[in-house]
Design a protein that fits this description.
5 helices, alpha+beta, 2 domains, 171 residues, two-stranded antiparallel sheet, four-stranded antiparallel sheet
Length: 171
């Protein structure tokens, strides 16, 4: 969920209505002309958090408690990293494989986001990704449609981009 974009629904929602864009499960809007690029440092933090979340789930699924020798904790007792040297066998291999997939997915999403920063583009965050597309399709034939991509953390969400310059051309 993109809380910053969620706060913009009331102020930017008229753009959708005025241009005949129907978003069944709208969760947020942003004007990309006002956004800043996600830095490599921010991207790496997002990737690491997603990787730790994934590994945490794998390493605690077979335990009745939420601890593992591979967990690295911060001062408040939160798991902030995983020491893969303390994970063995197929589990270690599986985690490394998934971590690579997570990294790739996040880079694709944020590269797309960064490619529209500073441009006259509307970013739409919606609950229409992954398996939800079957029930809530995205109108890719809309003349303002540019692209869409599933959220890497929860693929039931997606980001959709619309070219606002094409709205001006149509009027």
């Amino acid at each position: 969920m993109d809380l910053g974009a969620y706060q913009n629904i009331d102020s930017l929602g008229s753009i959708l209505k005025d241009n005949g864009i129907v978003i069944s499960r709208l969760r947020g809007l942003r004007l990309m002309s006002k956004e800043e690029k996600v830095s490599n440092e921010e991207l790496n933090e997002e990737i690491k958090a997603a990787q730790v979340t994934y590994a945490y789930g794998v390493l605690t699924k077979d335990f009745n408690y939420n601890t593992h020798p591979a967990f690295i904790y911060d001062d408040e007792g939160n798991v902030v990293d995983i020491d893969l040297n303390k994970v063995h066998g197929k589990t270690k291999k599986d985690i490394r494989f998934e971590w690579k997939k997570i990294e790739k997915a996040y880079k694709v999403v944020y590269n797309m986001y960064n490619s529209y920063v500073g441009k006259n583009v509307l970013y739409v965050h919606a609950r229409q990704g992954g398996g939800n597309r079957r029930f809530y399709p995205i109108d890719t034939a809309h003349p303002m449609y540019l692209a869409d991509i599933d959220d890497p953390f929860d693929d039931t969400y997606c980001d959709i981009y619309y070219d606002l310059d094409k709205a001006k051309e149509a009027k």
